[in-house]
Amino acid sequence: MTSYMRLLRLDGRVALVTGAGHGIGRATAHALAQAGAHVAVTDIDEIAARRVVEEIGPGDSHRLDVADEAEVKAVVAAVAGKHNRIDILINNAGLGARIPTVEMSAERWRQVLEVNVEGSFLCAREVGRHMLASRRGAVVNLASIMGLVGGGHYPNLAYHAAKGAIVNFTRGLACEWAPHGVRVNAVAPTFARTRLTEALLEDKGMEQRLLRDTPMGRFVEPEEVAAAVLFLASDAASMITGVTLPVDGGWTAR
């Protein structure tokens, strides 16, 4: 009989998580480590990355700006060179721009797309070389409910565009890599109390408005998103690819 709990174990696997110094990325690093994976914790904040490795136990920490192609190549080569494999990639690093569209500079627009979309592409491309060679692997991208709906509470067009792109990036890459044994999925969280949303939730009345639009009546915890990521990265999701899983308390079901 199948041992279903064993399907969630990641013993012997190597995972690389971007933006893992804080928030959802940090919680994901903890979840993967608890499931038995060796985690390469990467973040543009190198001190935060080192701190997370100290929290989770054995692991590697690397400074990584995912929008810097040379850095992505160097970090992936270092992790793969040390462990001779990378089994799991979590594209978590992200950036928003809560600015009215007519006031947004082209530079800021490009920055948001570079971090969210180009960063995910660069990491997937470099890690994918190793996964395709071994004919196994799991990629989980961080999308957002704002990649599935139009929002409406405040302007954030670059983020909407970027996360919408991640949804179809996930589908396209899943179809391309499925014949090679590599699965590609995404999670789409609702609002969590992280550094990314800190300023937003300080706006008068914003928290109440967002909670009104969440059928479950609360924000998501980073650990709840991490649990969904763990599932999609594990063999418990061995027949799931190309899916964007909302972790949103019913937001997108309204």
Beta percentage is: 5-15%
- Derived from helix and strand composition plus strand pairing, the structural class reads alpha/beta
The mean pLDDT is: 96
The number of strands is 7
Question: What's the architecture, going by CATH?
Answer: 3-Layer(aba) Sandwich
The strands making up the biggest β-sheet line up spatially as: 3-2-1-4-5-6-7
Please outline the major beta sheet.
Answer: 7 strands, parallel
Radius of gyration from CA coordinates: 17 Å
Number of helices: 8
Assign an overall shape.
globular
Helix share, percent: 40-55%
CATH C-level: Alpha Beta
What is the chain-wise order of helices and strands?
EHEHEHEHEHEHHHE
Termini separation comes to 39 Å
Output the CATH homologous superfamily: NAD(P)-binding Rossmann-like Domain
Question: Are there runs of 5+ residues with pLDDT below 50, and where?
Answer: none
The total domain count is: 1
**CATH level 3 topology:** Rossmann fold
Structural commentary:
- The mean pLDDT is 96.
- With 254 residues, this protein is an alpha/beta fold.
- The radius of gyration is 17 Å and the shape is globular.
- The chain has helices spanning 23-34, 46-56, 69-83, 106-134, 157-177, 198-201, 206-212, 222-233; strands spanning 14-17, 38-43, 59-63, 88-91, 137-142, 182-189, 244-247.
- It has a seven-stranded parallel β-sheet with strand order 3-2-1-4-5-6-7, with helices on both faces.
- The longest helix is centred in the middle third of the chain and has 29 residues, at 106-134.
- The protein has eight helices and seven strands; from the N terminus they run βαβαβαβαβαβαααβ.
- It has one domain (5-246): 3-Layer(aba) Sandwich (Rossmann fold).
